[in-house]
Amino acid sequence: MTAKRKVESSASIQDRVIRAKDIQQERFKRYSGIYTNAMMPSAMVKDICCISKVGQNLLKTAMEKLVLSGRAYNRILKVSRTIADLANSETIQENYLAEAIHYRSLDRQSWGT
């Protein structure tokens, strides 16, 4: 809040969310009952959520350090795909993957509280 950086307006955020939802609807239009990245079955994640070798190494390291399950692996990929959609990016860049991993680690910190 004290940082002197440009703040994104609510209208701009709303536009990005709408665009990301449109991207996802287009992506899943040929699949019955799937409309968002979160709804993707695990078998589809591998095809839709492709990551680079650097991204694979980043995710592998996070999986080991955070002791995450296969379900967590898929969730991180789905969230990183959504972050990429919000950025209007066709690819899941490493910074999107890192952001999704960070969210997962924050989630784990709140377990048991």
Description:
By secondary structure, this protein is mainly α. The chain has one domain. The chain is built from 5 helices and no strands. It has helices at residues 10-27, 42-48, 53-66, 70-86, 94-109. The longest helix has 18 residues, at 10-27. The mean pLDDT is 92.
Structural class comes to: mainly alpha
- What's the alpha carbon Rg, rounded to whole Å? 15 Å
| Unreliable runs | none
Q: Biggest β-sheet: count, sense, barrel?
A: none
User: What is the 3D shape?
Assistant: globular
Order of helices and strands: HHHHH
Task: List key phrases describing it.
113 residues, single chain, mainly alpha
What is shown here, in short?
By secondary structure, this protein is mainly α.
List the helices and strands and how they pair.
Blueprint: H1 10-27, H2 42-48, H3 53-66, H4 70-86, H5 94-109
Helix pairs in contact: 3-5, 4-5
